[in-house]
TrEMBL record:
Residues 1-23 form the signal peptide. This is Cupin type-1 domain-containing protein. Hexamer; each subunit is composed of an acidic and a basic chain derived from a single precursor and linked by a disulfide bond. InterPro entries: 11S_seedstore_CS, 11S_seedstore_pln, Cupin_1, RmlC-like_jellyroll, RmlC_Cupin_sf, Seed_Storage-Functional. It comes from Dipteronia dyeriana. Residues 46-250, 305-454 form the Cupin type-1 domain. PROSITE patterns: 11S_SEED_STORAGE. GO terms for molecular function: nutrient reservoir activity. GO terms for biological process: seed maturation. CDD domains: cupin_11S_legumin_C (cd02243), cupin_11S_legumin_N (cd02242). Residues 120-151, 206-229 are annotated as: Disordered. It comes from the Eukaryota. Seed storage protein. Keywords: Disulfide bond, Seed storage protein, Signal, Storage protein.
């Protein structure tokens, strides 16, 4: 073990040399990038994390990971998972930090309101005329609802939401719609420190949902209520500002604890959205052709991208699996969010190259299967070595090295990364520093014979995803 950790520290100091050059390059491209809130990561041991708390709602529930765990505090993020039943509507919180949402299962509609942007989804003249004839409640002007873009969402979609954007999710599918959300508390956009303090525009979150910080503030005299943000305003002022009567203001302000954050839609749910197939075909075309050259403004930028399509994989090995990334090149919006995501599908017993993240924390959520993970600190200490399975979260702090090996049923995961163009530095295989360094440098650095250095350099010729060796299928 001692020699192993020594080797690793040699390896890492090598990598520091190699990465200082790429750091300079990335500084050039990251002009004006804001600093992430710095954290202390005195990690001796990492853990598999499971949800600590469940908050029931009228049409679903929300599972929360413990925001105070050392692991999540190190990365300065929070993780939560919403399960939305059929006809359930996740009521929009607005947040002071960016969020990345991954659709684990099911399908539905997603809407986001970007402040100051036009309502581009409109009824046509014809539609509104026929609607106003058939439905008298449409109003005297015969005008239907107009709103900002509504997207169809399905398994594998990644939704990237900048701070301050209100959004909602409606389950119009047959099964539960389950989404996992990474809240990037440590993002430069968040100036409120470390709290999961969502403001709620509607509905009424339970107090727990407003985070530990919220509770502490409550103890210090600033009373936290479980109401939405409108309920704090003076009724007359609000009535005038909205040009509505006071009775309606009271309805807007009332808190309805029972329903929680996911409410059930009683009647027909009417929003404007393109047909699923039509939208899906257009998106797939766009994803394959790349961007269409139109300049993206804050009003037109894309918030969503699907990461599951096997034909869009960045790395594919028929004997090991595939890996796909959505970063700021693919979804320019991520430059603003300072986040990216990687999805890996490892086949039975395959290995994902031991690697480290030079610029990002990585927050892994296992989406399918099981396997074994080992994580090693910068100092070469093993801080995690255990089996993992679907539904668990593991944080891999920046510069820690990690290796994943799939079990007999394969292993799949997503990694949220706190950098818009997060790359990995491999410690084995093609693409690693071993394969790109002269044999004599390796021989001298590790005190090996030339022959051994050559074996070390050329032993594994695959990139990133390694097929299992016949002899090593189980350990
Ligand atoms: C390097 O390796 C040789 C042969 O294996 C050994 O005799 C020598 O002591 C090693 N040097 C160091 C500094 O470990």
């Amino acid at each position: 073990m001692a020699t192993y950790s020594c080797l690793l520290s040699v390896t890492l100091s090598f990598l520091v040399l190699f990465s200082s050059c790429s750091a300079q390059i990335s500084q050039v491209t990251s002009r004006g990038r804001q600093q992430r809130i710095q954290t202390q990561c005195n990690i001796q041991k990492l853990n598999t994390l499971e949800p600590q708390q469940r908050i029931e709602a009228e049409a679903g529930h929300t599972d929360l990971w413990d925001q105070n765990s050392e692991d999540l505090q190190c990365a300065n993020v929070a993780v939560l998972r919403h399960t939305i039943q059929n006809r359930g509507l996740l009521v929009p919180p607005y947040t002071s930090y960016p969020q990345m949402i991954y659709v684990l299962q099911g399908e539905g509609l997603h809407g986001a309101s970007i402040p100051g942007c036009p309502e581009t989804f409109q009824y046509s003249q014809q539609q509104s005329r026929s609607r106003s004839q058939s439905q008298s409640q449409e109003g005297k002007e015969g005008r239907g609802d107009e709103h900002q873009k509504v997207r169809q969402i399905r398994e594998g979609d990644v939704i990237a939401l900048p701070a301050g954007i209100t959004h909602w999710i409606y389950n119009n599918g047959q099964s539960n719609l389950v989404v996992v959300s990474l809240c990037d508390i440590g993002n430069a956009a968040n100036q409120l420190g470390q709290s999961l303090s969502d403001f709620f525009l509607a509905g009424s979150p339970q107090q727990e949902f407003q985070g530990q910080q919220g509770r502490q503030q409550g103890q210090q005299g600033h009373e936290q209520s479980d109401s939405n943000v409108y309920s704090g305003f003076n009724q007359d002022l609000l009535a005038e500002a909205l040009n509505i009567d006071r009775e309606l203001v009271s309805k807007l302000q009332r808190s309805d604890r029972q329903r929680g954050c996911i409410v059930r839609v009683q009647d027909e749910f009417q929003v404007l959205a393109p047909h699923r197939r039509e939208q899906q075909e257009r998106e797939e075309r766009e994803q394959e052709q790349g961007r269409n050259g139109l300049e993206e403004t804050i009003c037109t930028f894309s918030l969503k991208h699907n990461i599951n399509n096997p034909s869009l994989a960045d790395v594919f090995n028929p004997r090991a699996g595939r890996s796909s990334s959505i970063n700021a090149y693919v979804l320019p919006n991520l430059e603003k969010l300072q986040l990216s995501i990687n999805k890996v599908v490892l086949y039975k017993n395959a290995i994902y190259a031991p690697h480290w993240n030079p610029e990002a924390h990585s927050i892994m959520y296992f989406t399918r299967g099981s396997g074994r993970i080992q994580i090693v600190s910068q100092r070469g200490d093993s801080v995690f070595d255990d089996n993992v399975k679907e539904g668990q979260v593991i944080v891999v702090p920046q510069a820690f090295a990690v290796v994943q090996k799939a079990g007999n049923r394969g292993l799949e995961w997503i990694s949220f990364k706190t950098h818009p163009l997060a790359m990995i530095n491999q410690l084995a295989g093609r693409g690693s520093f071993l394969s790109s360094t002269p044999v004599d440098v390796l021989a001298n650095a590790f005190n090996l014979s030339r022959e051994d250095a050559r074996k070390l350099k050329n032993g594994r010729r695959e990139i990133t995803l390694f097929s299992p060796l016949r002899s090593s299928s189980d350990y």
